[in-house]
Amino acid sequence: MDSQRLFDGRLKIRHLVLLTTLADEGSMVGAAEVLRVTQPAITRAVREAEAVLEVSLFDRKPRGVLPTQFGEIFLESARTVLNNLRNAADHIDELQRVGARPVRVGTNLAGAYSLLPQALVALKKTQPNLSVSVIEGLPEELATSLARDEIDLVVGRLDPSGFRNGAHHIRLYDEPVRIVVRQDHPAVQRHEQSIEDLMDYPWILPGRPTQLRDELDELFSREGLGLPYNIIECSTILTLRSILIGTDAIAPLPMLIGAGDEQLTMLTTSLETVPRSIGITMPADRSLSASARSLIDSIVDAARVIARDLPLDE
Q1: β pairing state of 277-283 and 153-157
Q2: What is the pLDDT of residues 150-173, one digit of tens each?
């Protein structure tokens, strides 16, 4: 098709709203109810969009509709456009209210504990009016949010394979993953350090699908072991810490968590295969605001201090 047909004025924002809602609801009836319009209005929007694109966007099924392969491609871009418009509205609202465009930063466990908090503390001392929104999530979730322009950058453990082409990565330092336990854990007192010695304890593991979980599963397999029978899947530091302190659970965590908490300690168990690069991921095809660049500068400065003081992995 001729791409210029998309810009001749026939395809409008309302088409994107109606079509994405139809895909989400899976039926004309459901989409009409959500948007409070008539079913003929939904049908007309589909026909108008299909006329512009010259392809069929939905397959009609006995109990609803499903996007065609052409529809899937179009809907993905439509959602990105709508998200960009919503983000623009949020930015304008924020500028009107507090006078500074918010920076949306995603982070995972490795970034949330030390790097990002230190960077934000330093940044707020020099730019107190700069607004920052922190979103914590699994790496795969953050990769999707970055691709959809729902966040501006990601701080934490790098996983280039999880991001689409167009993402730019800044590697800041290496932080080993170590097995973290409470200070008076029985494994410390009994000098139990091999993975096999630890299999009977409760394990706190990241959920699937994550690169760290895949690496750990592979590590268990390479050691000739099955997965521990007692597993809690969790990637939230507050929940993790409470469980570790209150039970005999053990958790493979970024080293700084074990080194920086007086109630926790680390075992010397080797986890050399686990990825350990910490850094920043940002879109290569979108320009960043001045506020986002200021945050990146602060993160880089904080990373230099962390890298200098990072305990050596034994």
Answers
A1: antiparallel
A2: 899 999 888 766 555 668 899 999
Q: Which single residue is written with the structure tokens 């052409």?
A: 70
- Among left, alpha and beta (phi > 0; psi -120 to 50; other), residue 166 is left
Question: What's the DSSP call for residue 260?
Answer: S
Token pair listed for 54: 């010259």
Q: What is the pLDDT of residue 41?
A: 94
What is the number of other CB atoms lying within 10 angstroms of the CB of residue 223? 12
Q: Which of 172, 193, 173 is nearest to 181 (CA)?
A: 193
**Residue 215, Cβ density class (10 Å: 0-12 exposed, 13-18 middle, ≥19 buried):** middle
> Using an 8 Å Cβ cutoff, are 206 and 232 in contact?
no
Closest of 82, 277, 271 to residue 180, by C-alpha: 271
Q: pLDDT under 70 in the chain at which residues?
A: 94-95, 98-101, 160-166, 272-275, 311-314
Strand ranges (E), 127-250:
132-136, 153-157, 167-174, 177-182, 203-205, 231-233
Could you tell me if 146 and 138 are in contact, meaning their C-beta atoms sit under 8 angstroms apart? Answer: no
pTM: 0.64
240 touches 227 (CB < 8 A): no
Q: What number of other Cβ atoms are within 10 A of residue 299's Cβ?
A: 24
Q: Taking CA 284 as the corner, what is the angle to CA 121 and CA 300, rounded to the nearest 5 degrees?
A: 25
Cα 266 from Cα 249, distance rounded (Å): 12
